[in-house]
């Protein structure tokens, strides 16, 4: 008899200990699910990832079409509305990814073990199975509960090496086929007006004590895009189906940008020409955009150029995905068990607002991670070349070359004894007596004078205008 042991998942979670006890008879559960353990299946994640909440399966069919499964960890099979863990996960809203550790939304025994789609282990999933042609058109799809068994665990660098012929692998042909489909889907999104604003992620190498020793940048490439496009497809398909059925739902919405801000930015770009780096213009464009949020009121997703969109593919780290899974089970799969009748036994719009707020808090925590400040604290008194990326009434923020740390030159340290006018329209400060201007895109040589680790603040002093 195929029985998984009884799990006693205990952890110090928040301010109290919680215990999840589940007796999982996998054999009985498999009978109720679509068995896809014989399908070629794999995951692609960062090299240091421990929670694998999505996987892809692939099979070329006799008629030339492709059967592609997007498999998502079935977290809500284990975590029910009203459970202590569910309530704590709701309060957290999301996992927070710091430089040196993760503050998980769920206990590690769930996110890193029971629900993680690790290779060579039978795992329960909520899946969307697509039949696609060679032009990446979806011919039909099926939403269902499944059991899978991942064959391979890849990281992005490994897949990138396979794509570029630097590494051979038994499923290289499948990687190439999926990459071809992903490129076609991505191009279709771009043609429909989707935005392609991607900035390299700043990463730190740490020593054994967690102290930053080096900075490097992680660029998105086709390995990232492959996973991204199929996750976008699953999210969009679920949202479209729920929208068609007219049931109250959790959408991921992105409003149109502030056209006045974009107009000012376009005029500034025309005026400055090639003086401003494309990366700076991209940063300013992102800042002019509305923030994506969760809502029961669908307005579409401007950035992706989708009429319907949701978050379905990361229930291990995002609570809205858990809400979506429960609604999918209730509405699309027709399940009417007590666990799913009322989804999260709380007002959906209120839950959306809460999760949006917690997401923004997490983004601030991740962006304001102390590592940049610690890094710059080790470089006090050193000079760097940087570019002005923001101008305010109290000074200019400069992004340093080589490490992309940002620091402030206070307005009183720009031109000693001079009064500086703030010209918001043209993104600049102007000296009343000297006539000196400091504009977004200007290159400066700066001195690092202070790095306040508690306040996550780096202070710079102007050394020279380049």
Straight-line distance between termini: 74 Å
How confident is the prediction overall: mean pLDDT?
87
Unreliable stretches, pLDDT < 50, 5 or more residues?
A: 1-12, 14-23
Beta-strand portion reads 25-35%
Shape: elongated
Radius of gyration: 25 Å
- Fraction in helix: 25-40%
Strand order of the largest sheet: 3-10-9-6-5-4-11
Describe the main β-sheet briefly.
Answer: 7 strands, mixed
Structure summary, number of beta strands: 23
Provide structural commentary.
The protein is 31% helix and 30% strand. With 466 residues, it is of the alpha+beta class. The strands form seven sheets. Strands 3-10-9-6-5-4-11 form a seven-stranded mixed β-sheet. A five-stranded antiparallel β-sheet has the order 18-17-16-22-23. β5 (54-60) and β6 form a beta hairpin. α5 (172-191) crosses α6 (222-245) and α7 runs antiparallel to α8.
Write the layout of secondary structure elements.
Blueprint: E1 7-13, E2 16-22, H1 26-31, E3 34-35, E4 40-45, E5 54-60, E6 66-73, H2 84-92, E7 96-97, E8 102-103, H3 108-114, E9 122-132, E10 138-149, E11 152-155, H4 156-163, H5 172-191, E12 201-206, E13 212-218, H6 222-245, E14 251-253, H7 259-272, H8 278-288, E15 293-295, H9 319-331, H10 338-341, H11 348-367, H12 371-377, E16 383-392, E17 395-400, E18 406-410, E19 420-423, E20 428-431, E21 437-439, E22 443-452, E23 457-465
Parallel strand pairs: 3-10, 4-11
Antiparallel strand pairs: 1-2, 4-5, 5-6, 6-9, 7-8, 9-10, 12-13, 14-15, 16-17, 16-22, 17-18, 19-20, 20-21, 22-23
